[in-house]
C-alpha cells in the first residue's frame, strides 16, 4: 500500500456499482404500502413496516411470498395472483415516500465529477427501477442500470454484476460495489470486485461485519471520499 493510501485509506476505482433498496434509496415505506394493499385484497391482516424491511432484497416476488407466508400461508397460484396485485399497487405508490439516503446525491455527484462511472445493480423489477430512479432524481447520475429481471439470475449470483461491468467497459478489479446485505457482498466478491457494505440498510438483522466486505460505512457520505479515481494495483502494491 502506498504511503498516501495508508494515510487516507482510499479505495481506488474506475467504477462504482450501487445496490438500490436500502443502500441509495429508502424505499421501505412505499413497499410496505403496496404490501398491505395487496394483503388487504386477499383478506390478510396488515404487517408492520419493520417486518417488510426484513423481506426486501430478493426482488418483489420474494417480498410478496414472505408477506403471504407470514399472514396465513402461500401456494404458487396465490403467489402469482398476489404478485400481480402487488405490481399494480406498487405502481400507484412507488415514489410517494421513497427518497435518497443522506449523502447519496452529493457523493454520486462528487464521484461522477471525478470521472468514476456509476451503475445501479438491483434485484428490483425493471418496471420500477427506472421510474423510481427518475422520480428521485438519480437517473441522470447513472451510466448503467441492471435490474432483477435484466439478466437471467439475480444477486447473490455474480451475473448481474458482470453484466454491469461489461456495459461499463471495466474489469472487476477496477470496480467497487456498495451494498447493504449478504446478497450484495456475495455477488460482488464472487464477481471479483471489492465491496463496501453500509450498516443502515435492509440487512435482515444480520451483522454485516461478518459478511466479508472490505469496508463498512455508517453513512453513504463516507463513500464520497473513500472511493477515488485510480487503479487497484496501486492499493495492493
Ligand atoms: O428486493 C428488491 O426488490 C430489491 O432489492 P435491492 O435493490 O436491495 O437489490
Ligand atoms: Mg439492498
From TrEMBL:
Cofactor(s) in the UniProt record: Mg(2+)
Keywords of this entry: Carbohydrate metabolism, Hydrolase, Magnesium, Metal-binding
The reaction(s) this protein catalyses: 2-phosphoglycolate + H2O = glycolate + phosphate
Residues that bind Mg(2+): 19, 21, 180
Residue numbers annotated as active site: 19 (nucleophile)
Involved pathway(s): Organic acid metabolism; glycolate biosynthesis; glycolate from 2-phosphoglycolate: step 1/1
Gene Ontology MF, one: phosphoglycolate phosphatase activity
CDD domains for the chain: HAD_PGPase
EC number(s) per entry: 3.1.3.18
Annotated family: Belongs to the HAD-like hydrolase superfamily. CbbY/CbbZ/Gph/YieH family.
Record function comment: Specifically catalyzes the dephosphorylation of 2-phosphoglycolate. Is involved in the dissimilation of the intracellular 2-phosphoglycolate formed during the DNA repair of 3'-phosphoglycolate ends, a major class of DNA lesions induced by oxidative stress.
Keyword Metal-binding: yes
Gene3D superfamilies cross-referenced by the UniProt entry: HAD superfamily/HAD-like, Putative phosphatase, domain 2
Pfam families noted in UniProt: HAD_2
Native source organism of the sequence: Thiohalorhabdus methylotrophus
Protein name: Phosphoglycolate phosphatase
Amino acid at each position: 500500500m502506498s504511503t498516501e493510501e495508508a494515510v487516507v485509506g482510499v479505495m481506488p476505482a474506475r467504477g462504482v456499482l450501487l445496490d438500490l433498496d436500502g443502500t441509495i434509496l429508502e424505499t421501505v415505506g412505499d413497499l410496505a404500502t403496496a404490501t398491505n394493499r395487496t394483503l388487504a385484497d386477499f383478506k390478510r391482516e396488515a404487517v408492520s413496516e419493520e417486518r417488510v424491511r426484513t423481506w426486501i432484497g430478493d426482488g418483489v416476488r420474494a417480498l410478496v411470498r414472505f408477506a403471504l407466508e407470514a399472514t396465513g400461508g402461500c401456494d404458487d397460484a396465490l403467489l402469482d395472483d398476489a404478485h400481480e396485485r402487488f405490481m399494480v399497487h406498487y405502481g400507484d405508490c412507488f415514489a410517494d415516500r421513497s427518497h435518497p439516503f443522506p449523502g447519496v446525491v452529493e457523493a454520486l455527484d462528487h464521484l461522477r465529477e471525478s470521472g468514476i462511472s456509476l451503475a445501479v445493480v438491483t434485484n428490483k423489477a425493471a418496471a420500477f427501477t427506472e421510474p423510481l430512479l427518475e422520480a428521485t432524481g438519480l437517473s441522470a447520475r447513472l451510466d448503467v442500470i441492471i435490474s432483477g429481471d435484466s439478466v437471467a439470475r439475480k444477486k447473490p449470483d455474480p451475473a448481474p454484476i458482470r453484466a454491469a461491468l461489461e456495459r461499463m467497459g471495466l474489469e472487476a478489479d477496477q470496480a467497487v460495489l456498495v451494498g447493504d446485505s449478504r446478497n450484495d457482498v456475495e455477488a460482488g466478491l464472487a464477481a471479483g470486485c471489492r465491496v463496501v457494505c453500509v450498516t443502515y440498510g435492509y440487512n435482515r438483522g444480520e451483522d454485516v461485519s461478518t459478511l466479508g466486505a472490505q469496508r463498512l460505512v455508517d453513512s453513504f457520505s463516507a463513500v464520497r471520499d473513500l472511493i477515488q479515481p485510480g487503479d487497484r494495483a496501486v492499493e495492493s502494491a
